[in-house]
Design a protein that fits this description.
Layout: E1 5-7, H1 9-16, H2 22-45, H3 51-54, E2 63-68, E3 75-82, E4 86-93, E5 111-113, H4 134-159, E6 165-171, E7 176-183, E8 188-203, H5 204-208, E9 221-235, E10 242-252, E11 257-266, H6 272-287, H7 293-304, E12 306-307, E13 312-313, E14 318-324, H8 329-340, H9 343-354, H10 361-380, H11 383-390, H12 395-398, H13 420-426
Antiparallel strand pairs: 1-4, 2-3, 3-4, 5-6, 6-7, 7-8, 8-9, 9-10, 10-11, 11-14, 12-13
Helix pairs in contact: 1-2, 4-8, 4-9, 6-9
Length: 427
Amino acid sequence: QRVPLRINKSMVSAMRRPHRQGLAGTVACVGASLVALVCVASISASRTPSTLLASAPATRAATSVRVPLSGSPHRGVLQKRPTLGRRWEVSASGGSVTAGSTAAAPPMPAEVPANDPADKDKSLLPQGVPFGEVTIREQFERVLMNAQDNICKALEELDGEGKFEQDRWVKTAGGGGRSRVMMEGKVFEKAGINLSVLKGALPYEFIAKRGECKGYEPGDRIPYIGMGLSSVIHPRNPFAPTMHFNYRLFQSECGVWWFGGGTDITPSYIDKDDMKHFHGTYKRVCDAHDPEFYPKFKKWADEYFVIKHRGETRGLGGIFSDDMNDRPAEELLKFYTDAVNSVVESYVPIVAKHKDDAFTPEQKEWQGTRRGRYVEFNLVYDRGTIFGLKQALNTERILMSLPLQARWEYDYQVQDGRPNTTSFLLF
């Protein structure tokens, strides 16, 4: 809240030159300071209404300087505005301030750790959200929580040594998440599974691309609530593929909502039986709900997971979908529930098959090269990564998908006859 503080010329003169005016000047200086403090305290205590500023005399163009406020996520903006006397205003804002501007983008809500074991399974949904189908989001949050538990348990059992460390957090404005990461396991070099529930506001232009925004106009920011379960799993063995999945729900105050997500696989070396098993699992899931889902979502994945600057695909696809709201939410909830609950069936048997395969240093280097490609896609093209970085969300969680090790060899060329030739041609 901006608090105008008026200082007349005699007060300023006394504060500037107390040493020239002896005891009287010093007393005037101290008195002026006390008056200023009392004015600020009394105005703050009464929560000065905005009409105080509205009634202030017209001012000339303001000059602004940024002053960092220690211990605060806000940036201080000190504005000097000449009036009949002298008025200084200090406000906390998170955006650029122009002459005479009082508007500033609100900073991201603060978050706090919430790792009490008693809260492990507690809902992260903010209460009192007046839009969206409450039952749908409550059911889907529970689906994602259970899926996170089951997938973590299956990976820990397969690894035998590695354990997931959990970081549970809540946002003071509502929402939160459960981040779980395993590193340096026996089977898995790195595996992360993040559950997030977010509440905020997005530009009209972003949401209007996906449906009709009722009651809002271009330039508005529209409240939303979103949730998602996202994971990337990097095994140690180069013959065991990397796997990614993400399943999400979005609801907005203007009535636009959608489900989205999918599961895809990125092998370094191709085992046709593995690919038949993985794709076959998701074809059965899709066919059980709509025979058109699998060809549609497989094509979507093939077109989405492309490293355009390389002319290569990130991996060998899977299913992918976004902005799905072409049928009742209850039907889509059932499909995405079955899809996320098929992650273990589609992937864990493949890793179990290859976790003890012998490999050479050269084969490990090829795995590092393919993981380098994975990093390139995630940082340049991945929608979730880009969204998170632009929204100033937690960087560690956003970049959880990156492997511990990757390789960029200058002008790498695949030599004919090598085992990775087939893989490279398919990519």
